[in-house]
Amino acid sequence: MFKKLLFTTILGSTLLLAESGVGLNINEEDLELEGILDSRNLAALQTSSTIFQADVNFLNNNEDTKLIGMGLGATNKLAGVEGVEITLGAKFIWAEVADEDFTALPFMAKVRYSFPPLLFNIPPVAVEGKLLYAPKVLSFGDSVTYNEFRLSADMEVIEKVRVYVGYRNIHTQYVGIKPDLFNTSFYGGMKFSY
Questions:
Q1: Phi, psi of 174 (to 5 degrees)
Q2: 8 Å CB contact between 105 and 122
Q3: pLDDT digit string (tens) for 43-60?
């Protein structure tokens, strides 16, 4: 029931805002569903060059480990560097490993570089890095720390459709439970934007 509600929320929310999208990435063992809500075309929220983005993800590692994240960030172009966007914000994380629940509110930093138009009509290409960190003070209950690192590259093969490959490394540390590695894997996927 919870999975159906989460999926409906992610899919329905992405229809509300322009420049929003839905992504799906997989590998041999994991499935991740992503949703991004973007304020780019909402006049009421666009009083400056800063773009507000909400993102939601659901990572199903196996039957015993799941992760849900909901975040909000502010994005803007880096002054003096063409093609670079920086996002700063926070993201609520809930994870489940076996019967243990994990909650944290890590700070988030994301850098995206879109390459300038290439020769010979090669589709647009971009690389992205993302870092999330929550120390003990931002980890709740028996949670100690949360660390997440992602690196990905994407190419817009069809207008508003991107294929991408990436790497993620996620650590959820609990009181008295070792190891703290939640997921480390390479993945591939597709993103649709509106």
A1: -110, 160
A2: no
A3: 555 567 888 899 999 999
